[in-house]
Specification:
alpha/beta, seven-stranded parallel β-sheet
Length: 263
């Protein structure tokens, strides 16, 4: 299927590895020009080089900015590279795991800044141009914990839920009539560094080994496996497509069927 987005420009955050890389890879494969941003220059440069090989066959340009997107200076560096984007994929490393009642106010401020306020700032900086051009796609990578909270991820549960509420209102604003859609993509258990950190937290809390915790987690997933970044990226690319123009304000849960609810 031709997604109809070749030649568009995308900003993908946290793009050097994991789910962010999967999204960038899928977009480049569709002929989308991508600006990748991540904090680790060495990893980012290698990842960008890998995607440039795909771009050579699809006509997509791959650029990269080594910066911390959760800071004002990091966002300034990105927008100095390019101001206008047709697609923005927001993504930042999740806050630390731990005891819900042990986190300090500073812990909460950092979590909200990275996982709620940073996506909001990126949305504010790009939606006007999208609206003027009559096309825009914003995908926020959040977490399945927004629908089914995880006890060791209190900071993530709270901060990402705040973003979810913001998006619910903004996505139904006049932007929807101007071709701009805003959706949240909620990963469940994907084979990433973040999952390993969560499993380590559960291991420390229960006293079980990492292998035991991982095996139990897989058994709790109807698909009986963890997801991979490539299939996550494919979902992201579809949400960015012309075909997804009537889909906005939604929380798309990709979790192998783990969430037990109807809604």
């Amino acid at each position: 299927m031709d997604l109809g987005i070749a030649g568009k420009w995308a900003l993908v955050c946290g793009a050097s590895r994991g789910l962010g890389f999967g999204c960038a890879q899928a977009l480049v494969a569709e002929g989308v020009h991508v600006v990748m941003v991540s904090r680790d220059p060495a990893v980012l440069e290698k990842s960008a080089a890998d995607l440039a090989k795909i771009g050579a066959t699809t006509g997509a340009t791959v650029e990269h900015v080594a910066a911390d997107i959760t800071t004002e200076s990091g966002r300034a560096a990105v927008f100095a590279k390019r101001r206008d984007f047709d697609i923005v994929v927001t993504n930042a490393g999740g806050p630390p795991t731990g005891d819900s009642l042990a986190f300090t106010r500073d812990d909460w401020v950092r979590a909200v800044d990275a996982n709620m306020l940073t996506p909001i700032e990126l949305i504010k900086a790009t939606v006007a141009g999208m609206s003027e051009r009559g096309f825009g796609r914003i995908i926020n990578i959040t977490s399945s914990s927004v629908k089914s909270p995880i006890d060791v991820l209190a900071l993530s549960n709270g901060a990402r839920s705040g973003l979810t509420g913001f998006v619910a209102g903004l996505s139904r604003s006049p932007l929807a009539a101007k071709g701009v859609t805003i959706n949240n993509l909620l990963p469940g258990a994907f084979d990433t560094d973040r999952l390993r950190t969560t499993l380590q937290g559960a291991s420390a809390k229960t006293g079980k080994s990492m292998d035991e915790v991982a095996a139990a987690r897989r058994q709790g997933i109807p698909a009986k496996r963890f997801g991979n970044a490539q299939e996550f990226g494919a979902i992201c690319a579809f949400l960015c497509s012309q075909q997804a123009a009537y889909l906005t304000g939604q929380n798309i849960l990709a979790d192998g069927g783990a969430y037990p609810g109807t809604f």
